Amino acid sequence: MTRLELEAFLTIIKTGSISAAAEQLYVTQPALSRRIRALEEELGYQLFLRNKGIRSITLTPEGQAFISVAEKWNLIYREALAISTLKQKPVLNVSSVGSISTYLLPNVFRRIIAEESPYNLCFHNYHSYEAYDYVASGLIDIALISDDMYHKTVTTTPAFREPFVLIGGPAWDSIETIHPSRLDPRKEIRLPWNPEFDAWHEHWFDVTIYPKVLLDQMSLLEEFLTDDYFAVAPLIVAGRLRGGNMHICRLEEGPEDEIIYYLTCHGQKRPLIDHFLTLLRNELKSYEGIYSFL
Length: 294
What we know:
This protein has 294 residues and is an alpha/beta fold. Helix content is 41%, strand content 20%. A 6-stranded mixed beta sheet has the order 4-3-5-13-6-14, sandwiched between helices. The model has no long low-confidence stretch (mean pLDDT 86).
């Protein structure tokens, strides 16, 4: 299994076709196909379904499962190449769920750069369940997650707790507190935050009414919060969006507070992890209403 073969596989996944992948990698399509066949022969199973006349790619079940493995191999290879350029500085590998990386971590990262931290940073966005495997394998040193679970080799530690609030457009300017029974689900910009939030949502909102917008990309939230539309979101998300035409309202009988955890496993980078957690703790101090466990 060579780097070129893994690169061929991941580029095909990214571009959606062999022709586009070959163009991006500056190789011919036959050469790229040979790399994939060599990879399949070594693995002992087929990665792609090959149908004549169909330009787009279709993964086999084995090919779908191999994506995460190929990404891990690719990450290890990049880290191996980087060793010669690290000099005295090690690498701290950090991952986070999307809401934290979008709305909380940017200021932490700026401080890492501004103060010339004792490490280089490598960051990835991973879902909570993905993060456990990456931390257990040593590919990630610390991960911030929202959905905790048991893992025999990974330590799950609470980082902070935050309430949910309502954030809305100009129509919410004069409202300080509201009960969920007064909310119109047809005006909602809906995001699936965690299982506890989903249970709360099903209790107060008619499940037969589809929200105005259902999002899985939190960075797009602000684009839809106009007029009297609203979203229920963790305080940190709302705090970053607040200002201008955005307004925050407290919720009576709101969802259970969200707890963000951090995952660790291997202890050799503990001083680097502690430094990162110190910066995170300092950033949390700027948010009124957040309870930090750090």
